[in-house]
Amino acid sequence: MDGIVLLKEDHKTVEKLFKQFEKADDEAHAEKRKIADQVIDELTTHTWIEEKIFYPAAREAAPDSRDHVLESIEEHHVVLWMLSELKDLDAADERFDAKMSVLMENVRHHVEEEEKEWFPDVRKTMGRNRLNELGEQMEKAKKKAPGEPLAVPSAKS
Questions:
Q1: Residue 102 — pLDDT band, cuts 50, 70, 90?
Q2: Are 89 and 95 in contact (CB under 8 A)?
Q3: If you ran DSSP here, which 8-state letter would residue 50 be given?
Q4: Global pTM?
Q5: How far apart are CA 99 and CA 29, in angstroms?
Q6: Is the C-alpha dihedral spanning 27, 80, 44, 118 positive or negative?
Q7: What angle do CA 78, 49, 8 make, to 5 degrees?
Q8: pLDDT digit string (tens) for 23-80?
Q9: Is the dihedral of CA 144, 148, 150, 151 positive or negative?
Q10: Which residues neighbour 120 within 8 Å (Cβ) at sequence distance 6 or greater?
Q11: Which residue among 49, 65, 91, 146 sits deepest, i.e. has the most Cβ atoms within 10 Å of its Cβ?
Q12: Quick one: CA torsion of 101, 102, 105, 106, rounded to 10 degrees?
């Protein structure tokens, strides 16, 4: 699978989880906890493969993408810390829904920038063969991704 297609599929998966969370009843704490845990797993893995494989390859292929990559890593930093806080926060805590809401806003902004402003340029620069190669590498790397958000490199920067 093409690397950009793989990342967009991840984006769709997370967006579906966000919509489930938004539809959940205010008092459905167990359901919200389950959804949040899935979001944490998905986003931790996604940020890991982007930072370990996709971003370095994109920077190499398109040196002018440097600023976008750096901004994306900073956005990851914020998201990963929010994920780590959500991981340990009781779903009945009054801050839980608010924290998820801010997380969703941040992720949706990040996804929109990637998909509309950056991915089309990366696709042109890299070409089909390189993107397929990256897709395979990222698919394999998903199995090695850490389960802890703060283990992703950008969480420490």
A1: very high
A2: yes
A3: I
A4: 0.96
A5: 14
A6: positive
A7: 85
A8: 999 899 999 999 999 999 999 999 999 999 999 999 999 888 889 999 999 999 999 9
A9: negative
A10: none
A11: 49
A12: -140
What is the Cα–Cα distance from 122 to 44, expressed in whole angstroms? 23
What tokens does 140 get?
């394999």
Identity (one letter) of the amino acid at 6?
L
C-alpha distance from residue 113 to each of 7, 9, 81, 106, 141 (Å): 13, 16, 20, 11, 24
Residue for token pair 């009781």: 90
Question: If DSSP codes are grouped into helix, strand and coil, which group holds residue 144?
Answer: coil
Is the pLDDT at 157 greater than 70? The verdict is no
**CB within 8 Å of 91: residues ≥ 6 apart:** 29, 30, 32, 33, 36
Structure tokens that stand for 129 in this block: 């063969």
How far apart CA 70 and CA 29 sit, in angstroms, is: 36
**Burial class, 81, CB count within 10 angstroms (exposed 0-12 / middle 13-18 / buried 19+):** middle
* Contacts with 87 (C-beta within 8 Å, 6 or more apart), sequence order: 37, 40, 149
Separation CA 65–CA 6 (nearest Å): 20
